[in-house]
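Listing 4. Sequential folding, example run.
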Amino acid sequence: GDLGDLIEVEISAVDPAGGTSPVARGGRTINGTNSTPVEGTVALSPASPKTADTVTATPSGYRDPDGDPITYQYRWFKNGTAISGATTASLNLAQAGNGDRGDAIRVDVTATDNKGATSDAASANATVANSPPATGTVKVKPAAPSSDDIVTATVSGFSDADADAPADTALSDSGAIRTRRTSRTPADGPA
């Protein structure tokens, strides 16, 4: 339709026995010249983000029927709740409160034309995946142990972005591992 045209619709209901309802009518007059942008889709990268990742939303397929230029608006959510201040194309999960392992992340993207008309939102979702622990260092003493020495290993710098507690360690409360020989080779002879 064109500006000033009346767009009408007539609807009636028909039941299985053939009965028909009276006609209901509705209509609108086209009184504006600006069309609303049409939503497209949005993709997240990476698709399975980890706790320290930055997630980026990439919209595609949005269009304005009038050919007006459009800009995108972003709104990020964690577990269904809007994240305060998260209104850009990227979300840094390393920032406290933005997302940890197991959290459901969603972004809603709308497009607005230069006359202020805004599309419906398109959404994309991801669940924050487990991050593997980061490697630290280990110092073993003495430097050249003999067969009856107690060997001490001191570890430091190991971390986990998800703040997971280590599941399998032999660390003492002091952070040192104390053990006698843990394996023998045939050249070592009998234990």
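-- end of first protein; second protein begins --
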Amino acid sequence: NLTISGPFSISGNRTLTVIANTTLSGPITGTGTFTKAGTGTLVLNNSTPWARNSAILQLTGGTLTLDGAALAGTDAIRVFASGGTNLTARLFLTDGATIDVGKNTANLRVGYTGGDATGTNIVDLAGTIILPVGGNGGKTQFGVAGSNYLSLLPGGLLATKDVEIAAGGVYNEFNFSGGTLQAIQATTTFF
């Protein structure tokens, strides 16, 4: 296990490839797309505030665990295994972790375009994801790539405009295991 202490300023489009279990401890600032790649686990804990306004958070392999971390002002959240066959990309929020998406065109995408058809894409939510109201964003979208799973676990909250299942995904599954699904805007096509 490796722990790296910051603060961290990550600007531009950057990829962090994690092979071993790694924890980032300290504030993260900057703009641009942040991609977590590799088969290892990256942990952002409660001493890792995220102040990356309009930054896209992408997960293309391994696990990104938010253990009490608070990410505010993010752009889209994309979970899609890519870069090889039979990979898994998992986003896990626990212990009060929150992602508050600030851009009104942004969505939570499980199985984003560009992912591998043999990949497995997972969001396990025992924390909170709040998507934006207004604009054409605020949606939870199951994509066209791979097998896609979203589980609302005890203590989990997903506040979304609606849930969309795209045609063409290998498999899509939404599990209710004790969490809360909250509609944030009136719509005729919530699920």
